[in-house]
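Fold it.
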Amino acid sequence: MGFRSLVWKTTKKYLTVGLVGITVSDRYASIVPVRGHSMSPTFNPHGSTSLGSLTDDYVLVEKFCLEKYKFSHGDVVIFCSPSDHKKRNIKRITGLPGDWIRTPSTYDALKIPEGHCWVEGDNSASSFDSRSYGPIPLGLIQGRATHIIWPPQRIGKVDGRIPQSGLTF
């Protein structure tokens, strides 16, 4: 009876911790790795190395912004790719519903429809973003990156200012 009781207590403890962890990760905040160069120098400024994920930036993603889709110009957001729902992208919001964006390929002005936003990577030379697939639905956004939490020498708040180089307006 003692062994069974111990197993039951341990199982309850781990199930409780697991359920609380899933709830926090799903509703409030999570930690997300940043891969690639499209957001350099904001994330992964030194490029990829043979160490891989040890040198990649990891960011804290808050999800309170999803309740009423409260976003601002310059917010860095994580979203499902509009071209492949299995992939997650991280880009900076450069246009919100009602804004006018000048597209670099055609030099036309495009008004961002309600319920959508325009996202671009800080490194325009290696970024597949709204310049390629157009405005994205706000419903694809999974959260806002607020802090870099890894590597230790880069710990800090994510800058919400839009870089002047490379972004279209």
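The chain has a mean pLDDT of 84.
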